[in-house]
Write a structure and sequence with these properties.
The complex is a heterodimer of chains A (205) and B (497). Chain A is an alpha/beta fold. Chain A has nine helices and five strands. Chain A folds into two domains: 7-134, Response regulator (Rossmann fold, 3-Layer(aba) Sandwich), CATH 3.40.50.2300; 144-200, Arc Repressor Mutant, subunit A, CATH 1.10.10. In chain A, helix 6 crosses helix 9 (191-200). Chain A is elongated, with a radius of gyration of 23 Å. Chain B has four domains: 2-124, 2-Layer Sandwich (Beta-Lactamase), CATH 3.30.450; 145-248, PAS domain (Beta-Lactamase, 2-Layer Sandwich); 253-339, Signal transduction histidine kinase, dimerisation/phosphotransfer (DHp) domain (Helix Hairpins, Orthogonal Bundle); 347-494, Heat Shock Protein 90 (2-Layer Sandwich). Helix content of chain B is 45%, strand content 25%. Chain B has 15 helices and 18 strands. The longest helix of chain B has 57 residues, at 250-306. Classes of the chains: A alpha/beta (205), B alpha+beta (497). Chain A binds chain B through residues 14, 16-17, 19-21, 23-24, 27, 58, 83, 85-86, 106-110, and chain B through 283-284, 287-296, 298-299, 302-303, 313, 316-317, 320, 323-324, 327.
């Protein structure tokens, strides 16, 4: 994955709103891609999209909140900023709870929008680094031998080296060697760390 | 004396006006005079040989036998009107109540009884019928709460019944002077009631009298609503008396009022919803271009502040502002057109008719008290308009006027029509004037604005809608700021050319 400069993806069915916001955000030196509806955005989406999405709540066809759901379902991790005609409080609460960065009322004030975009970019970077980290760990886990996996499973369940040895029919020493290899491959600093990695990757169940 | 001797028993009986039967002690009839035959519906000689018992209705025969035995054991004269009665059957089997007298006559070994009788139930029927009908009338009057009055114009007095005296309170006499009668009527209602009487007294009218008014009980000050109906009777073309009934309709009035308030509330909620939806529609339609204009403007402003002009960008932003401002204006017009959607169906209508309909509507609505004063141009040509919409506007103007005159002593609602020529076209000009406190200049400037209101319970759409309706009908609605007293609204409608 290439970490390029973040961009803003606008989804709004009003051409003038789209155009004016594009102009405003481009003026701040940020790349903008605009889409006239949710479907156009989803069709164009590719995993290398990086930055944040500005979505109008009230759109014909799939509305803003439905698009948010769809993105969650498709595991599209881009942070969302919602735009709305009038501050609908229950709706905004729902949107924020589902992970939206903010809920801005039209007409939008330039300064507020740009701050919001910056917050969203920070969030996007955080999400990306988290994903990268997780991917690295997963690739480490795949490097483990079948026997090492067995040892790791029993170790994170809290069994002693002696118990693991008798359970797998190997010596106490061999267990110790396997464990040090596991720590090496996963990069875990101690047993607790290893347990966390196992939990986060759905191992050990 | 000798002449008397010649009279046979038979001839005496035959001549008697009363019905008579002569029976043996067994009860067998030996003689029946023609009156008796006629009463019982038998042919001559048919009764002879029958027993009295056979003439008695079967269900009373047992009782009769007992009394017959009792009488025979100690025979004595039993005159009429002592309560000796028999339920007999005539030849057709119809029951009749007979009042009888009994006179025992001894002759040789035989005891005869002379029975004289007449029909009691004929008289009873009439009495009963009269009693029943009076009772029915009384019950009906009571049930309906009806009082009866008879107003004698010449003597200027009113005969009234107990029910009415009770309503008027304190009065016990069966007559009352007209002045005293009127004194109990609520001062606000006297004029309208008198007008109704005057109308009914017109020899050219049907004489029908109909009025509703309040009376104030002099004892406890309680107000009751009375509905009076009656008819004036004429003698030689001159009103002679007014007879009618009154009914206490206070409860009914109360329910009507409550219903009216409820209806008003429902209407208000509806209006409010319409207003909310209209406002929301306007908000959405205007917010999009406003959002764009705001963003474009900030782009230009930011460029100016940073002296970083990119000419095509600035042009695009300013061009966007202009387009969006125009789009907002278009949206508004489209929205207004939408609110008056559907093709307007107009017809040739008499403006006077529409005005009367609207007045009736407001009057029956019980919206408040007012005296209408109509100055309608007699030969006004018909107008081309949508009747319902114009009526709606008039009702709205009338209601506003009546509400404004809430504090006025004699609220006068003046409605005028006249022809006005504007350019080549002729219009009907309608003026609606009240004599309330009038409007401040600051209020009249804003009075047609949507959502502007001076009423605590209003939503301020009435006049805005009225103006839109009149404009849709090809006319104009405005307020005449200089007319006095009160407030004057005027509107035009195109006359049929």
């Amino acid at each position: 994955m290439m970490l390029t400069e973040p961009a803003v993806y606008i989804v709004d069915d009003d051409a003038a709103v789209r155009d004016s916001l594009t102009l405003m955000i481009e003026q701040a030196g940020i790349a903008v891609y605009a889409f006239e509806n949710a479907k156009a955005f989803l069709n164009a989406y590719s995993p290398d999209f990086f930055g944040c999405v500005i979505i109008d709540v009230r759109m014909s066809g799939m509305d803003g909140l439905q698009l948010q759901e769809e993105m969650t379902w498709r595991k599209i991790m881009l942070p969302i900023i919602f735009l709305t005609g009038h501050g609908d409080i229950p709706m905004s609460v729902r949107a924020i709870k589902s992970g939206a960065i903010d809920f801005l009322t039209k007409p939008v004030i330039r300064e507020k929008l740009l701050i919001c975009i910056r917050v969203a970019f920070t969030e996007a970077r955080k999400r990306i680094s988290e994903i990268t980290q997780q991917r690295q760990i997963i690739s480490c886990l795949t490097k483990l031998t079948p026997r090492e996996r067995e040892v790791m499973l029993l170790a994170v369940q809290g069994h002693s080296n002696k118990e693991i040895g008798s359970c797998l029919g190997i010596s106490y020493r061999t267990v110790e060697i396997h464990k040090s290899k596991i720590m090496q491959k996963t990069g875990a600093s101690n047993l607790l760390d290893l347990a966390r990695i196992a939990r986060e990757n759905d191992l050990g169940r | 004396m000798s002449a008397v001797k010649d009279l046979s028993l038979r001839s005496v009986l035959d001549a008697a006006a009363d019905a008579m039967l002569l029976t043996e002690n067994s009860g067998r009839i030996v003689l029946a005079n023609p009156t008796a035959q006629q009463l019982l519906g038998y042919a001559p000689e048919e009764l002879k040989g029958l027993t009295i018992e056979m003439l008695i209705a079967p269900q009373y025969r047992k009782q009769f036998r007992y009394y017959h035995k009792l009488f025979m054991s100690r025979p004595a004269k039993r005159p009429m009107h002592e309560g000796n009665e028999l339920i007999a059957l005539d030849r057709e089997g119809k029951e009749m109540l007979l009042e009888i007298s009994l006179s025992p006559i001894k002759a040789k070994q035989q005891l005869y009884v002379l029975i004289i009788f007449n029909v009691a139930n004929r008289r009873l029927d009439a009495e009963e019928a009269l009693r029943t009908s009076e009772e029915r009338l009384r019950l009906a009057k009571q049930a309906a709460g009806l009082g009866i009055f008879d107003y004698d114009f010449k003597r200027n007095i009113i005969y009234w019944d107990k029910q009415m005296r009770k309503l008027w309170g304190r009065h016990t006499e069966k007559t009352v002077s007209y002045e005293e009668f009127v004194a109990a009527i609520h001062p606000d209602d006297r004029e309208a009631r008198q007008a109704a009487i005057d109308k009914a007294m017109d020899p050219n009218s049907t004489g029908e009298f109909k009025a509703q008014y309040r009376i104030v009980n002099p004892v406890n000050g309680a107000e009751r609503w009375i509905s009076a109906r009656g008819r004036v009777y004429f003698e030689a073309g001159c009103a002679h008396r007014l007879i009618g009934v009154t009914r206490d309709v206070t409860e009914q009035k109360y329910i009507e009022k409550k219903l009216q308030v409820q209806r008003g509330e429902t209407e208000n909620i509806l209006k409010q919803q319409v207003a909310v939806r209209t406002a929301s529609a306007i908000a959405h339609e205007l917010n999009q271009p406003l959002a764009a204009i705001s963003a474009y403007s900030e782009v230009v402003l930011h460029a100016l502040d940073n002296e970083s002009f990119i000419a095509p960008h600035l042009r695009r932003a300013l061009q966007g502002c202009v387009e969006q401002a125009q789009r907002a204006g278009r949206s508004l017009h489209e929205l207004l057109a939408f609110l008056q959607k559907g093709e307007l169906i107009t017809e040739q209508s008499s403006l006077a008719e529409i005005i009367h309909e609207a007045l009736n509507f407001v009057y029956e609505d019980g919206y408040g008290r007012f005296y209408p004063l109509l100055r309608l141009q007699q030969d006004l040509p018909p107008v081309q308009c949508n009747r319902t919409q114009v009526q709606k506007v008039l009702v709205n103007l009338f209601r506003n006027a009546i509400e404004a005159m809430n504090v006025t002593d004699s609220p006068l609602l003046t409605v005028m029509t006249e022809v006005q020529k504007i350019g080549p076209q002729q219009f009907a000009l309608v003026s609606v004037q009240d004599n309330g406190p009038g409007l401040d200049a600051s209020v009249s400037k804003r009075i047609f604005e949507p959502f502007f209101t001076t009423k605590s319970s209003g939503i301020g759409m009435g006049l805005a809608i009225s103006r839109a309706l009149i404009e849709a009908n090809g006319g104009q609605l405005w307020i005449d700021e200089h007319a006095r007293p009160g407030a004057t609204f005027q509107f035009t409608l195109p006359l049929v050319s």
